Amino acid sequence: MKYILLYLSSFCFLTTIAQVTFPENGPQHLVQNQVAFIHANLHTNYNTLIEDATLLVQNGRVVYAGKSTAIPKGYLVYNATGKHIYPAFIELYSNYGVQLLPESQKSESETKGFISAKKGAYHWNESIRAEFNAAAAFTADEKRAKQLRASGFALTLSALQDGICRGSAALVYTAKGNEHELIAKPKVATSFSFNRGTSKQHYPSSLMGSIALLRQTYYDAQWYQKQNKEVNFTLEAFGQLQNLPAIFVAGNKQNALRAAKIGQEFNTSYIIKGSGDEYQRLEEIKATQLRFIVPVNFPKPYEVEDPFIAEYISTADLKHWELAPYNIRMLIEQKIPIAITADGCNDASTFLKNVKKAVQLGTPESEVLKALTYNPALWLKQEKELGALTPGMIANCIITDGPLFAKQTTILETWIKGIQYQVNDPQTPILSGSYQFNIPQTGNVKLVVSEVNGKHDYKWISKDTLKATVSYTQTGFQLTIKPNQNIDSSVRFEYWFTEVDSSNYPFTIKQAKGYLKTRQGDLEPTLFSQMQSGSPKQASQSDSIELNMPALVWFPFTDYGQLALPKQQVYLITNATIWTNEADSILIETDLLVKDGKIAAIGKGLNAKGATVIEAKGKHITSGIIDEHSHIAISNGVNEGTQSSSAEVRIGDVLNSEDINMYRQLSGGVVAAQLLHGSANPIGGQSALIKFRWGFEPEKLKIEGADGFIKFALGENVKQSNWGDRNVYRYPQTRMGVEQVMYDAFQRAKAYEQLQKESKELRKDLELEATLEVLRGKRFITCHSYVQSEINMLMHVADSLGFKVNTFTHILEGYKVAPQMKKHGVSASTFADWWAYKFEVMEAIPYNAAILQQMDINTAINSDDAEMGRRLNQEAAKAIKYGGVTECQAIKMVTLNPAKALHLDSKMGSIKVGKDADIVIWSAHPLSIYAIADYTFVDGMILFDRSMQSTLQQNIKDERERIIQKMIKAKQNGEKAEKWQSKIQVEYECDDEEE
Amino acid sequence: MKVFLNWICTLAVIVLLSNETAGQQKVLIVKGATIHLGNGMLVESGCLIVEGAKIKRIINSADTSIAGARYINATGKHIYPGIIALNNIMGLNEIEAVRATLDFKETGEFNPNVRSVIAFNTDSKIIPTALSNGILFTQPVPQGGIISGTSSLMRTTGWNWEDAVFKVDDGIHLNWPEEMVYGGWWAEPYNAQQIKTTQTVQAIASFFQQANQYAQLSNPPQLNARFESMKGVFNGTKRLYVHASGAKSIVAAIQFLKQYPSIKLVLVDATQAWMVKDWIKEQNIPVVFTNVHQLPTHPHHAIDQPFKTVAQLVNAGVLVAIAHAGYWEVRNLPFNAGTAAAYGISKEQALQCITLNPAIIVGADATIGSLEEGKDASFVISEGDILDMRSSRVVQVFMEGVEVPIENHQKALYLKYMNKYGLEPR
Question: pTM of the prediction?
Answer without folding.
Answer: 0.90
